[in-house]
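In the design runs reported in the main text, the only information available to the sequence generator was the tokenized backbone. The following block is the verbatim input for one such run; it is reproduced so that readers can re-run the procedure and compare outputs position by position.
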């Protein structure tokens, strides 16, 4: 009985009964051969004769490929990094599953399906046994071929070659397990194809190009020296590390648009939280885990665009600006996600605020740990009656409260220790709303004497109010504000509505809230307006129907 499933590439020539061998040309040799596949006639219609000739021709091709590789120089290295080892293992893992996927796409007869099942069981059993013994001899030739395809030559006697073969063997065992699950009808997808390792030809002219992690370090040093937020540098470091785990720590001159595209695709499949079993996993490992646990929550398209691709794009843009590369390969690479209705932030309504200012913080004197003392009481009120960003009011100091021409105001023009401003237009003076004065904000500030108004609000990776923001979301939902589109920033949106309600001119409300001018030629920043004009604007910020009488009773 003919069983060609055991002999990949053994097929019958179209229009004849004769057999032929079809063999894929290895990726690293396709340029030399000028094609992706070789076809050789076995000149027989007898199955058993064809199998013998198939074996002979396969050996000849293996020798031919090896000779071609010897003709072309590769990079002789003495060691591989752990990232490079995992990268090579990911390539091998992909190749195994892609070949299996192609086989199933082409279809298997009942006999082929049964034989393939037996083969997979044998391979998995033998693989596990070899893995348990640390016997990698059977995979050494494959490892050399894989390295050669990537333009690398590594001595078989090195410790890193042994590590690579063990990692490959481990990957084959896992791949065989996945293939067996597919054989039982489980629809497990093939992972995204990893980008190839840098080859000798690519490395040579770019030897002096810094790697992406080195570029990030240079960027971060400059960013922090210029007063940029530490959190941004920390966030960027996370995604630069993930890029390097996926592709290797590539010199920036070797990074191509396909690298960035594959990174984008991988991030869309990456778990959003690295906790539990995922803790400490590299990106390739986490992607494997996610493929087997398809209900796991992954990064949203917005996070991939804003954070992952945003970080890589910014780092590579810096490399362009500083002359390390000529163009940014991350340019225009983004997730094309359809806009989902109802995902934008909404302002708090007056009804919401009447509910908020009757939370236990305001009625029972409750001070939850996450609310950071008096910040839980004052930050929502300050946000509602200034329209300022949470970070701006969270970092206020006693010294930021000043007076000019009889107007008491928050001075947000300076950048003191631990403070930062989002934009140039964020530097402004904001008169203190009469309602805040009635509620006792100045009395509270005098009790603090000096330093931060809310000292219990502590910095988290360079952002003072990050933890408070998370607490507020949980606390507000617990007490009835359940619309996820309404967050602390909703106070800022509500203030914009409040200014409009009070008839405040747009340029004045923009100056008070720190928005950049919306048309050219418009005055820029609150310094462009007299403090008395700004005070008149803030007094018109109103919320018809908002009742804070219960907060004024004890003042």
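Verbatim output:
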């Amino acid at each position: 009985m003919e069983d060609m499933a055991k002999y990949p590439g053994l097929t019958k020539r179209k229009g004849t009964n004769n057999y032929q061998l079809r063999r894929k040309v290895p990726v690293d040799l396709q340029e030399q051969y000028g094609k992706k596949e070789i076809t050789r006639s076995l000149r027989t219609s007898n199955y058993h004769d064809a199998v013998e000739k198939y074996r002979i021709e396969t050996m000849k091709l293996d020798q031919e490929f090896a000779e071609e590789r010897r003709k072309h120089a590769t990079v002789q290295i003495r060691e591989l990094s752990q990232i490079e080892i995992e990268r090579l293992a990911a390539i091998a893992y992909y190749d195994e599953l892609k070949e299996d996927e192609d086989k199933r796409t082409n279809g298997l007869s009942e006999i082929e399906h049964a034989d393939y099942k037996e083969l997979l069981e044998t391979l998995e059993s033998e693989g596990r046994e070899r893995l348990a013994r640390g016997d990698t001899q059977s995979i050494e030739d494959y490892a050399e071929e894989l390295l050669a395809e990537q333009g690398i030559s590594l001595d078989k006697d090195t410790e890193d070659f042994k590590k690579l073969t063990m990692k490959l063997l481990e990957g084959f065992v896992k791949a065989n397990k996945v293939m067996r699950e597919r054989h039982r009808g489980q629809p497990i997808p093939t992972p995204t194809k990893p980008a190839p390792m840098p080859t000798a030809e690519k490395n040579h002219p770019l030897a002096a190009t810094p790697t992406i992690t080195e570029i990030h370090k240079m960027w971060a040093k400059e960013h922090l020296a210029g007063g940029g937020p530490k959190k941004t540098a920390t966030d960027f470091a996370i995604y630069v590390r993930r890029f390097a785990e996926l592709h290797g720590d590539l010199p920036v001159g070797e990074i191509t648009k396909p690298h960035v595209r594959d990174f984008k695709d991988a991030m869309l499949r990456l778990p959003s939280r690295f906790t539990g079993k995922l803790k400490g996993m590299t990106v390739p490992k986490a992607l494997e885990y996610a493929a087997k646990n398809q209900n796991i929550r992954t990064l949203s398209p917005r996070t991939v665009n804003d954070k992952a691709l945003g970080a890589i794009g910014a780092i590579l843009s810096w490399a362009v600006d500083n002359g390390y590369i000529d163009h940014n390969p991350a340019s225009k690479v983004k997730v094309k996600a359809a806009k989902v209705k109802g995902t934008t932030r909404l302002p708090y309504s007056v009804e919401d605020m009447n509910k908020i200012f009757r939370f236990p913080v305001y009625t029972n004197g409750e001070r939850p740990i996450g609310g950071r003392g008096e910040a839980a009481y004052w930050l929502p009120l300050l946000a509602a009656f200034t329209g300022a960003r949470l970070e701006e009011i969270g970092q206020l100091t006693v010294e930021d409260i000043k007076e000019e021409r009889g107007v008491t105001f928050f001075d947000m023009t300076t950048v003191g220790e631990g403070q930062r401003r989002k934009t140039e237009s964020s530097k402004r003076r904001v008169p203190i709303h009469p309602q805040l004065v009635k509620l006792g904000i100045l009395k509270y500030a005098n009790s603090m004497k000096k330093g931060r108004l809310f000292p219990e609000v502590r910095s988290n990776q360079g952002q003072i109010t990050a933890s408070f923001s998370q607490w507020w979301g949980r606390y507000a939902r617990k007490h009835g504000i359940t619309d996820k589109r309404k967050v602390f920033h909703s106070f800022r949106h509500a203030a914009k509505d409040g200014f409009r309600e009070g008839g405040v001119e747009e340029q004045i409300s923009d100056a008070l809230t720190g928005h950049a001018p919306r048309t050219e030629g418009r005055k820029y920043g609150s310094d462009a307006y007299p403090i008395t004009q700004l005070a008149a604007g803030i007094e018109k910020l109103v919320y018809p129907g908002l009742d804070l009488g219960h907060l004024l009773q004890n003042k």
